[in-house]
Amino acid sequence: MADSVDLRQHIDCSQGKAFIDGEECMDAVSFQVVFSPVTSSTKTLGHTGEDTRWKGYNVRVTLSEYRSRPWLKNAIQEFLTNKKTPNFTFQGMCTDEQSDYYRDYGGQTVTVTGCVPTGDITLLNQDVNSDFVQDTVTFSGKDVKFSGESEGASEGG
Questions:
Q1: Is the pTM of this model over 0.90?
Q2: Among 1.10.155, 1.10.540, 2.30.30, 2.30.110, what is the CATH number of 16-39+50-154?
Q3: Which of 8, 15, 18, 149 could pair with 25 as two cysteines, CB 3.0-4.6 Å apart?
Q4: Residue 59 near residue 92 (C-beta atoms within 8 A)
């Protein structure tokens, strides 16, 4: 019997794009969009297990990029001046046309609206042992939408 060879073409994580408010993050290094269900569980007499259901959700976006534009500084200045909470739209795209996923389901775009930075934002970072300044920002999102070439298959699921 001949050895079977796995010829699957997995998604190449480096084949993607990130956008903040419609502007491409040309120096993006990585991003992650995480959906966390908020659950509620109940117990009833006579049953040893719990019944759990989703009551809501939290969406978190983490973006790492080389510092090449002042969008975070501008958001901080706007808050300090006008007390206006920064609110962004993040869009991430998977564009690996050689993957089995892309072949079977098309590209995927995830758009998160109402993104408010929730973690520390580095204002200045100088270090003789580092090469380039890289920022990592965490956002809490309000809503998430899926789209892609096979939109109907990804909606609601």
A1: no
A2: 2.30.110
A3: 18
A4: no
